[in-house]
Structures are given as structure tokens and as C-alpha cells.
From TrEMBL:
Keywords: ATP-binding, Calcium, Disulfide bond, Glycoprotein, Hydrolase, Magnesium, Membrane, Nucleotide-binding, Transmembrane, Transmembrane helix. Its EC number is 3.6.1.5. It is a multi-pass membrane protein. Belongs to the GDA1/CD39 NTPase family. InterPro entries: GDA1_CD39_NTPase (IPR000407). PANTHER family: ADENOSINE/GUANOSINE DIPHOSPHATASE, ECTONUCLEOSIDE TRIPHOSPHATE DIPHOSPHOHYDROLASE 1. It comes from the Eukaryota. One of its GO terms (molecular function) is apyrase activity. This is Ectonucleoside triphosphate diphosphohydrolase 1.
Length: 486
């Protein structure tokens, strides 16, 4: 090579090395550090049982939407914490197995910074109404138990019905990644054992302040309608409904309750206090101690009997759901989770039209109890016997209560999970308390990581090609000049 080209070659080599170093550094510098995770624990102390949820998220992306995921769940053995009113220590002790599991699942070096929250819902709201002292003792007991773990204890409290509804809404919209998009949001329908919640962004004005809740999330304002009906979870609704039937029938037939919501051939002895042992049915008092609960398996009569637990005759607003509670017209798509899902999924009723759902359910309810047991020998008979009631209650609540119709029935999606995370209030509760959903949209990189690397690569290649072209041009023009001289 001629000596006079040496500076050009050195120059090109230096530029090439410079570009390579630039690309390598920017790739390494911006590489997402996925191996660093943070964790959070939320205990859902429901009326029927307690579940422990462990969430995880990449440490450096905590404010981005959709980053927090459910890593693990553990169902606490036995009933909900409100059932420990006579033995409060038992409530704290019941959490041990699942909390030890949490210790195993979360890396030890993260334990001290991992927040633990316990939120109790309708079972504890009812216990507080009945016996405030006992509800305090139960909360103290679970608090003492949670403080004994190496995590960062953040409190154990009874959450309000509004919080339960609103955080369920945040969870489903966070997981569906609706919050940063201009698309609509998903309403949330939660059916527990002791209460039920409806939450959505309405098109009409919210006429009662109790039912209105505002959030600013990722730079958007959300004006939500929410209501929680205490005593209208499926277990309490069964008591309400049986209480009404008992009240009218036991006067004439003190030993038999003929119930259209249970299968023909179903016959179980019960006691009156079994039905009336809750503040939801307190006003109904009866002397008879024992009665025989006899199934009739008649869906339309069952629906008639369930309608009696919804008072639709009073409303001081422009429109109401039931019991005088304001509710705007349901609007948009809804995610229906917890018992809405368990029940409808068990009966295979999650994707039919409203008319077909009713037909199938009517056939199911009239199926003899013996046949039902024969078809499902492994399922606990208490649960099995209640599906006809529960599904009829769900249809009646959605249609007569919330005013869904055959036209918008398809807008209800019965869901358990979104991705790997359960739909429920716990994730929204943790996101809110850890400030993981910022009010304003965080600054986003100009382009996604993959796009950025590709751009840097092709841009560097382009510079190289251009330099090569300049070099070739330079070489040709100096040769032509030399020829001209010769
Ligand atoms: N069939 C069936 N029922 C379930 C299952 N899990 C819970 N249930 C029942 O469904 C009802 C509602 O359950 P959850 O949503 O866990 O209710 P909860 O959170 O304990 O009650 P709330 O405090 O009112 O929210 C209760 O009657 C439970 O016994 C399940 O996997 N299958
Ligand atoms: Ca619940």
C-alpha cells in the first residue's frame, strides 16, 4: 500500500473502532437488568378464606404499567379470619404455613424490604358490626403473627367496600394494560362470600358522592362509579334468601323448607340458627330449632324467591340498582371474577347468550341430586349442592340488580386470571400503597430497546458505508489527478 494512503486507512480504522465501541457501550449500558426483582406480599382476608399473594417486578421498572406480576399464591387452610372470633389467637396462627412458604419463595436478601399488607373484607366488616371488640382482637392477632416474619410489616386492616371495588378495577385494568391507552377501560364485578362489588367508568353523572371515586393514573383522569353490597356475597345471599323462605313457610310447616334452588331429592337437616347467625338476617327471628331442607329443583321458582332479597321499590335518584342504591346504566365491557367465575365456569356457562344460559341452568337445577353427586363424586357436597342457587343468584343479581340485558350480556367476561395474575383487589391495593402507579405518565425512552439496538447498528453501518464511499471517491479522484499530471 502506498504510504500516502496510510493516514486515510488509520482514520477509517479509528472511526470503525470508535463506532463499534459506541454500539457495544450503549447496548451494555441499556441492557434491561431482568435478574433484579423486588417483591410484595398481600393477604386477602376474605369472609370464606384467606389467600396470600406474592407479587414480583423488575427492580428498575417499577413505575411502568403491566410490570408487576403474581409470583405465587397460597390458600390458608381453614375458614376466613372472621370465623376466629371466639379464638382470636387461632387467626394469627392460621397464617403460619403460608407465610413460611413466602419466606421460601422470596430471596432472603429481599426479605427486609418486602412490604406485607393484610386487607380484610366483608366477613370482618360483619364481625365488626356484630362484635367490635372481637374484630379488634382478631386483627391484633393477625398483626402480631405478620410482625414475626422478616418482612416489612405495613399493616392489617379492614378495607372499605369502596376500596375493595376500586382496587379490583385498578387490578383488571392494570393487567389488561388499559391504563396508558386511549381505549376504554374494563368494569369490575367481584362476587365474594359476604359482599359483592360493581365498579366502572359510567357515561352518566354520578348522583351520590358515596359511589364516586377519582384516580389520576399515568396522566389520565378516571371518574369511577363503585358500590359494594354488604350481605350480597353468595354465602350471605343464600342465608338472606333462605331466611325469607323460612320466615314465610315455617309458620305453616315448621319442619320442612321446600326450596326450589336445590336439586330434587336433596334433603338435609338444618337448624334455624344456622341461617340466622349473621347480622345480615338478624331481624328475622324464629323459634323452631330444626327443619328439613328439601330441594325442589325449579329454576324459575328459585329466581322468584331470589328476587325477594332485592328491594327495587325504593329509589331517590334518577335510577337505582336495588335497595335504594344509585347506579348509572352499565357501560362498556366488564370482567366478572371470584365467585362469578368459579360458579359460571363450573357450570360451563361462561360463553352463552343470556337465553341459553337460563335454559341450561334450568335443566341443571332440575337434575336429581343423586345424579349430580354421581357425576361429581369428588366435589364437596356442600359446594356441589349450592351451584344451582349460586348461578341463579348471579343471573338475578346481574339482570335484575345491575340491569344487564340480553343485548349487553356478551360484554361480561367471566375471568379468573389475566396473564398469570388473579383478578381481585389485592394487586391494585399494593400498587396504590407502594405508589407504583404514578399520577403522571413516566418519561418513556424514544424507542423500545430492540428498536434502539437495531437503529444503532444500522446507523453505524450507514456511517461506515458512507466513509467507504468517500474513501473510494477520494482514491479515484487522486488517481485521475495523477494520470492527468503524467
Ligand atoms: N366452587 C368454588 N367455590 C369457591 C372457590 N373458591 C372460593 N369459593 C367460594 O366462593 C365464594 C366466594 O369466594 P371468595 O371470592 O374467595 O370470597 P371471599 O373473598 O372469602 O369473601 P368476601 O370477603 O365477601 O370477598 C365463597 O362461598 C367460597 O366458599 C372455588 O375454587 N370453587
Ligand atoms: Ca373477596
Amino acid at each position: 500500500m502506498e504510504r500516502r494512503y496510510m493516514p486515510v486507512v488509520i482514520f477509517l480504522a479509528a472511526i470503525t473502532v470508535g463506532i463499534i465501541i459506541m454500539v457495544v457501550i450503549s447496548v451494555v449500558q441499556n441492557k434491561p437488568l431482568y435478574q433484579k426483582y423486588k417483591y410484595g406480599i398481600v393477604l386477602d382476608a376474605g369472609s370464606s378464606h384467606t389467600s396470600v399473594f406474592i407479587y414480583e417486578w423488575p427492580a428498575e421498572k417499577e413505575n411502568n404499567t403491566g410490570m408487576v406480576q403474581q409470583k405465587h399464591t397460597c390458600n390458608v387452610k381453614g375458614k376466613g379470619i372472621s370465623s376466629y372470633s371466639a379464638n382470636p389467637q387461632g387467626a394469627g396462627a392460621s397464617l403460619q404455613e403460608c407465610m413460611n412458604e413466602a419466606k421460601q419463595k422470596i430471596p432472603a436478601h429481599r426479605h427486609p424490604e418486602t412490604p406485607v399488607y393484610l386487607g380484610a373484607t366483608a366477613g370482618m366488616r360483619l364481625l365488626r358490626m356484630e362484635n367490635e371488640e372481637a374484630s379488634k382482637k382478631v386483627l391484633d392477632s393477625v398483626a402480631l403473627s405478620l410482625k414475626s416474619y422478616p418482612f416489612s410489616y405495613q399493616g392489617a386492616r379492614i378495607i372499605s367496600g369502596q376500596e375493595e371495588g376500586a382496587f379490583g378495577w385498578i387490578t383488571v385494568n392494570y393487567l389488561s394494560e388499559n391504563l396508558r391507552k386511549p381505549t376504554g377501560t374494563l368494569g369490575a364485578l367481584d362476587l365474594g362470600g359476604a359482599s359483592t362489588q360493581i365498579t366502572f367508568v359510567p357515561q352518566q353523572k354520578i348522583e351520590s358522592s358515596d359511589n364516586s371515586i377519582d384516580f389520576r393514573l399515568y396522566g389520565n383522569n378516571y371518574h369511577l362509579y363503585t358500590h359494594s353490597f354488604l350481605c350480597y356475597g353468595k354465602d350471605q345471599a343464600l342465608k338472606l334468601s333462605m331466611g325469607k323462605k323460612l320466615e314465610s313457610t315455617l309458620k305453616t310447616d315448621p319442619i320442612e323448607l321446600r326450596d326450589p334452588c336445590f336439586h330434587p331429592g336433596y334433603k338435609v337437616p338444618r337448624t334455624v340458627p344456622d341461617v340466622f347467625n349473621t347480622p345480615c338476617t338478624k331481624e328475622l327471628k324464629l323459634a323452631n330449632e330444626n327443619f328439613l331442607h328439601v330441594g325442589l329443583g325449579n329454576w324459575s321458582q328459585c329466581q322468584q324467591s331470589i328476587r325477594k332479597v332485592f328491594n327495587t321499590s325504593i329509589c331517590s335518584y334518577s335510577k337505582c340498582s336495588f335497595n335504594g342504591v344509585f347506579q348509572p346504566s352499565v357501560y362498556g365491557d366488564f370482567g366478572a371474577f371470584s365467585a362469578f367465575f368459579f360458579v359460571m365456569d363450573f357450570l360451563n356457562l361462561t360463553s352463552d347468550s343470556l337465553a341459553t344460559t337460563k335454559e341450561k341452568l334450568a335443566a341443571y337445577c332440575s337434575t336429581p341430586w343423586e345424579k349430580i353427586v354421581g357425576n361429581h363424586p369428588k366435589i364437596d357436597q356442600k359446594y356441589l349442592s349450592e351451584y344451582c342457587f349460586s348461578a341463579t343468584y348471579i343471573l338475578t343479581l346481574l339482570e335484575d340488580g345491575y340491569k344487564f340485558t340480553s343485548n349487553n350480556w356478551k360484554d361480561i367476561r367471566f375471568i379468573k386470571k389475566i396473564g398469570d395474575s388473579d383478578a381481585g383487589w389485592t394487586l391494585g391495593y399494593m400498587l396504590n400503597l407502594t405508589n407504583m402507579i404514578p399520577a403522571e405518565a413516566p418519561d418513556m425512552p424514544l424507542m423500545p430497546y430492540g428498536g434502539y439496538v437495531t437503529f444503532m447498528f444500522f446507523f453505524a453501518l450507514l456511517i461506515l458505508v458512507l466513509l467507504l464511499l468517500v474513501y473510494l471517491y477520494f482514491r479515484r479522484s487522486t488517481r485521475t489527478a495523477q494520470k492527468d499530471i503524467i
